[in-house]
Amino acid sequence: MPPVSPDPISPRSARVSAARRLAKRNFRGKDRLFLAEGPQAVREAAGHRVDGTPTLVELFATAEAAERYADIIGAARDAGARVHLASEDVIADISTTVTPQGLVGVCRFLDTPFEEILAARPQLVAVLAHVRDPGNAGTVLRCADAAGAEAVVLTDASVDLYNPKAVRASVGSHFHLPVAVGVPVERAVEGLKDAGVRILAADGAGDRDLDEELDKGSMGGPTAWVFGNEAWGLPEETRALADAVVRVPIHGKAESLNLATAAAVCLYASARAQRASGGCRSVTQS
Predict the structure, then answer these.
(1) Rounded to 5 degrees, what angle do the CA atoms 264, 218, 153 make?
(2) pTM of the predicted model as reported, rounded to 2 decimal places
(3) HSE of 236 in the Cβ direction (CA atoms, 13 Å)?
(4) Which of 15, 51, 87, 239 is 20–30 Å from 251 (CA)?
């Protein structure tokens, strides 16, 4: 296993410079590397592999964090990652957060080809169409993970999956389920339909009500939810691709729900329906 550097790495080190530049999308794409910050994300990265290749490449840790999270340091070394002790100033220089937690990992890209997702015959999928806010994208990814979805698809007009804010917002869920990126929305819908998945577009102006759909028992089959842009929702041409356009009912006086909240409601509604008697999942499946 690679040893932990006995002395803090120099702020002028080429390794620090290479990590720092991953805050920018063009360098992430060129190097096919991204940053995972904080103990939860780094812990998940250290245990993650793609086709047997460890995802975590490098880890920078303050002396305090290395002591506090000795298990993570050990897991990183077991994964073959280079581990560097770093001053708080170096961590702050690499990190994109206001208050870094002392651990910053450099990870390999881990997105999954869309064809592999289709071949796995997913039962529940979240499709982000033209979603631009990285915090929303990461939170929807986390919601999809929590609801038991098998995949997330980001269309070609959506935010970068590896944006640091998106990675932080997912709180480790980047490492839990397959995510396809850069898929044209028409291709995403067509492929999922061909795989036997019903397409539901989530839209506040939908002609079908989520509660009514649940009451009718129509949501037990394989389902993909399509979520649109935070500001203008889904364009008419995208809604037209769906099998149904469904609104989340507003029972109180709120004007609307934000994207991540609506996504959580929709995904959990499908997850519950699929796990109920007659749904496409066993009620005992975890």
Answers:
(1) 40
(2) 0.90
(3) 0
(4) 239
Residue found under tokens 């006995």: 6
Residue with tokens 């245990």: 47
Using alpha carbons, select from 43, 44, 83 the residue that is nearest to residue 61. Answer: 83
Strands 198-202 and 53-54: unpaired
Residue carrying the six token digits 């880890």? 59
- Structural tokens at position 147: 């609801």
**What CA–CA distance (Å, rounded) separates 147 from 143?**
6
Q: Which tokens belong to 60?
A: 């920078």
| Nearest alpha-carbon partner for 230 in 202, 190, 199 | 202
Q: Tell me if 155 sits within 8 A of 183, measured CB to CB.
A: yes
* DSSP secondary structure of 175-220: GTS-EEEEE-HHHHHHHHHHTTPEEEEE-TT-SEEHHHHHHHT--S
Angle, alpha carbons 82-86-88 (nearest 5°): 145
Q: Which of these, 180, 186, 184, lies nearest to 117 by C-alpha position?
A: 180
SS3 195: coil
Contact 84, 58 (CB under 8 A): yes
How far is 174 from 171, CA to CA, in rounded Å? Answer: 8
Which residues have C-beta within 8 Å of that of residue 253, sequence separation ≥ 6? Answer: none
Query: Per residue in 98-129, pLDDT tens?
Result: 888 999 999 999 999 999 999 999 999 999 99
